[in-house]
Amino acid sequence: MAYSPRLVAFFVTLIATSGAQAGQLQDLYQQAQANDASYLAAQHSLNAKLQIIPQAESAVMPQVSANFNQSLPLDARADSHNYSVQIVLPLRLDAYYGMKVAQQSAASARSNFEKSEQSLIFSVIERYFAVLKQQRQLASSQAELKAIQQRLKQTQQLVDVGLASNIQLQDVQANVQQLQVALLQTQQNLNLARTDVENLTNQPLTEHLDSLSADFGPQLIPNESLQAWFQLANANNLDIVSNGFSTQQAYHNYQAKDVGLYPKASISLAQAYSRSATLNTDTTTLSIAVSGTLYDGGLNKAQTMEAQENWHASQQQGAAIQRSALQQVRRWHQSLETNRHQIQAYTLLLASVQSSLSGKTKEYELGLRDISDLLDAEKLVFAAQRNLANAHLDLVLNQLRLKQVSGVLSSDDLAQLDNWLN
User: Fold this and answer.
1) Would the CA dihedral through 92, 97, 98, 100 be positive or negative?
2) HSE-up of 420 (CA within 13 Å, CB side)?
3) What pLDDT, in 10s, does the model give residues 91-132?
4) How many CB atoms lie within 10 A of CB 59?
5) Mean pLDDT of all residues belonging to the chain
6) What sign does the dihedral 299-303-304-305 (CA atoms) show?
7) For the chain, does the N or the C end have fewer beta carbons within 10 angstroms?
8) What's the gap between Cα 273 and its chain centre?
């Protein structure tokens, strides 16, 4: 496949920074390759599809046949035997184009299998990141619960000395109970996300998955132009590539039907030997045979028109596939740009709510703020932290979606991601 030179340079630079040892994502992908039933079925289907090439080629290859007969009479007559060997070379235009059809069909099957590989790579990453999001949610909820439980103790102490009301205490208790309920749901979501990964690999998952390292940032994701991605997708999108092979297949099938009524010829060379009690013969024969259909009731004409229309239909389907692929490129490129702006906004928001929390904490200690104000400020901090972490994960996922729709997603991306994980 052809790749954009600028993007290749970016990808090579990123891959060069990867560690030599296989990481968590690479291990999961290898397990998925060995255990995912859909992927294994696609692999066997490809192997079966590739067998159409030798089958089609056999129609234009020489055919060798032999015959031997030994006669052993039970009476006094002498035995006899004969043998023959024949080599036939078929001369058929329709078989030649049939071979072309098989070659394009096999090429299309390879593209479809490569698409299955890319889908498996992305599925591993997407499910892994779903676990990371739930791990982050769980850790954040636990930290938030711990913080509010500490506030509950402080409020209880203030109630005991008459500096806070029971209503304030009940508000804090309600927040604690609400977080405890939410924590149970988060734990369930984490278990479900882990199960999705285990279903793909058919292997138990480690207790804790590595998250993106603290030094990961948007600057590590190449910021290529939309036009560059368009060029990359036009050359490498696997749906476009597969349709190209299918269109060529349809064209060669049309050619095969178009010559269906052409005469068929063959050249054969035969050697025969026979021996009996009264006669010995040894003959060598060179034959040229030509045969053809003079009238078939319009069958071939209808088949040719059908094949021609299928060829034109495949061309139009290719145009639709191309437009759809470029629309997907535009969508994920815009999503990628949105993620970059979201990360900037969440970074500023986190700094702002942390500063606000610090100020409200001091005001609360001076009696200028209610406990509910402090709890709300803490919730905003935890929410901003989660949103920022999720935005980083979404940035990576959307970049991988952009690579997938452009046809350049590969196992090298797993190695790069392992290098970005803690």
Assistant:
1) positive
2) 21
3) 888 899 999 999 999 999 999 999 999 999 999 999 999 999
4) 15
5) 89
6) positive
7) C
8) 61
SS3 83: strand
Neighbours of 146 (CB within 10 A): 10
**Angular region, 104: left φ>0, alpha ψ -120 to 50, beta rest:** alpha
For the stretch 222-239, pLDDT in tens is 889 999 999 999 999 999
Which of the residue ranges 161-170, 204-213, 311-320 would you say has the lowest mean pLDDT?
Answer: 161-170
Tell me, rounded to whole angstroms, the distance of Cα 101 from its chain centroid.
26
50/129 Cα distance (integer angstroms): 36
Average pLDDT over residues 297-318: 95
Give the type of residue at 189.
N
The neighbouring-strand residues paired with 63 are: 88
Residue with tokens 């067998």: 51
Distance CA 350, CA 354 (A): 6
**Quick one: CA torsion of 357, 358, 359, 363, rounded to 10 degrees?**
90
Contact criterion met (CB below 8 Å) for 105 and 49: yes
Architecture per CATH, domain 5-11+32-293+310-420, reads as Up-down Bundle (1.20)
Q: For residue 62, which amino acid is it? A: P
Closest CA to 1 of 245, 201, 365, 185: 245
Letter string b/e over residues 352-371, b meaning 16 or more CB atoms within 10 A of that residue's CB = ebeeebeebeeebeeeebeb
CA–CA gap between residue 294 and residue 266 (Å, rounded): 18
Which tokens is 354 given?
A: 């942390």
Residue 24, CB-side half-sphere exposure with 13 Å CA sphere: 21
Place of tokens 């498996």: 120
List phi, psi (to 5°) of 263: -60, 145
Least-confidence region, from 83-97, 98-112, 249-263, 271-285: 271-285
Query: Helix (H, G, I), strand (E, B), or coil: what is residue 23?
Result: coil
